Amino acid sequence: MPTRNRFVPSGVIPACLLPFHEDFSIDEKSYRKHLRDVSDVKGLSAITVNAHASEAHACTFEEQQRVLNITMSEVSTLPVVNGIYADGSALAAKLAAMAESEGASALLVFPPNSIAMGGQLRPEMAVSHFRTIADSTDLPLIVFQYPLGGGLGHTMETLLRLCEEVPTIVAIKDWCNDGMLHEKHIRVLRNLPRPVSVLTTHSAWLMSSLVMGCDGLLSGAGSVIADLQVELWLAVQSKDLSRAQEINERIYPMIQAFYAPPFLDMHNRMKEALVLLGRLPRAVVRPPLVKLSSEEIQDIEKALNKADIKRDGALLEAA
Predict the structure, then answer these.
(1) Rounded to an integer, what distance in angstroms lies between the CA atom of residue 219 and that of residue 111?
(2) How far is CA 39 from CA 42, 79, 228, in A?
């Protein structure tokens, strides 16, 4: 299928959160505000919705369609990347077709959990999954590359086969969590006959990742600190090491708070940060995720103070 849509993601791309009411229904009013808060940050190249940060795993097809519909009505100045989170290829293709009809500019394709138990030994499964999606849409595809140790990451050989056999793949979101492999992805994929971009999502070591030469970053932390991510990205692009280190000093406490064990609570913590900043009215997550302890919320507030992140135009009071 020829690619009419030539959007190639690069630069800073935050993944937006999804606010809920206490009864776990989507809080559309707060979501619209969150979209405006994030998309108003100068220097972004796109935003992402219906991904990890928006708890897509716990949302129905209809809810994901509504999320994208709301997004397109609120965000008119930036391309929108829509996540494709599905264990079955047929559902993934249905989500992809929906995203194209709603106006998304690209798709972020998650690996199906169904391939975790040995799928790396059957690369044809990954190829079939992506072909099924590509056959349903003209949109550019971003491969979400997971760590190999969990069984969901694609081997280098599989990644190369995907890039060769599915021409609408234009980028990977690299979360291999291995510095040596990450650098190999950058060097190899960007130098293919049809170059494939590498977006990092190694938010826990973002500066180190960016200086390897990534084409951009796609991160849930951007739902809170997109402005700092933009500043860091620009400093690295201009090879201003001193400025990059200065910005990284502010990012560091937030990363330590967001990505502490258990890792699965990262977006839970980001919601709590936005509540503390006065940007969301509540931090509700859908089960099986549960609310954080008051002690951990206090730690997030201390991190916000250390990072000197402003709330309602004023510095946070010292914790």
Answers:
(1) 17
(2) 8, 10, 14
